[in-house]
Amino acid sequence: MKNEKKLENDKEILTKLLFDKYNKMLLTKQEFSFLINRSIPSIDRDRANSRGCEYIKDAGKVYYPLHAIIDYLINTIKTYN
Hints:
Blueprint: H1 2-22, E1 26-28, H2 29-36, H3 40-48, E2 56-58, E3 61-65, H4 66-76
Antiparallel strand pairs: 1-3, 2-3
Helix pairs in contact: 1-4
């Protein structure tokens, strides 16, 4: 239970930080690429292979919702002791 509370708190903090920085709830693939330090072709390849972050496609453009980015970051961060 304690870990679930910490996880929810971390998500809230990340949401606030990202929203304060970008002032919107959807990031372009260029912004997402910069944020996670990966190239656009790598992100495109992940999307084509049904991997990576959840996205929305609108009028031929790809957007990444903040909540999906946060889930992606939390699930892909590796920690070492």
